Amino acid sequence: MLSLAFSEKSLEVQRSVVIEEFKQRYLNQPYGDVWLLLRPLAYKVHPYQWATIGKEVSHIENATLEDVRDFFFRFYCPDNAIMTIAGNVKSEETFALAEKWFGEIKRKFVPSSPYPVEPRQEEYRELTVHRDIPYDSVYRAYHCCSRLDPDFMPSIYYPMC
User: Mean pLDDT of all residues in the chain?
Assistant: First the structure.
């Protein structure tokens, strides 16, 4: 959180790694692109319409050093991080190590960006894709209420309700 080695060389190395991951996970396996196709069908305005890794390889290819630098300095800070500690540890030692390694990092206010509210889906959406895959597949997705809504669990188990 204190620094990042910003260089064109390191960006190119990481870009290659991420592009390979994208290809391996989404493009080079049967059914791999299903979520890339389903997300924009289910969401029209909310960021859920994009996978975290990007929508397509060109998003990764076109990322600039300035994009990476801006993202890093905007989001990589203690106020936007969670530390998880597990195992047979002693609290005093854990706090001492956390202070040693992270204590000098200055807090930074990260303003939350309100996500656009996905409009109520009023029409049927369908996409048929033909691929050379072992078996035909049908994927269905449903919008549901907020996870804080009392009806959240029933909406998960009975989406047709």
Answer: 89
Closest CA to 53 of 42, 41, 66, 39: 39
Q: What pLDDT, in 10s, does the model give residues 65-93?
A: 999 999 898 888 888 889 999 999 999 99
- Condensed to tens digits (0 to 9), the pLDDT of residues 105-118 reads 988 888 887 889 89
Q: Report the C-alpha gap between 46 and 154 in whole angstroms.
A: 23
Measured CA to CA, the distance from residue 43 to residue 74 in angstroms comes to: 26
Is residue 22 a contact partner of residue 54, using CB atoms and an 8 Å limit? yes
Q: Are 79 and 107 in contact (CB under 8 A)?
A: yes
- Chain-centroid distance of CA 37 in Å reads 16
User: Using an 8 Å Cβ cutoff, are 154 and 82 in contact?
Assistant: no
Tens of pLDDT, residues 36-65: 999 999 999 999 999 989 889 999 999 999
pTM beyond cutoff 0.90 = no
Residue 48 DSSP symbol? G
Residue 40 in contact with residue 108, Cβ under 8 Å? no
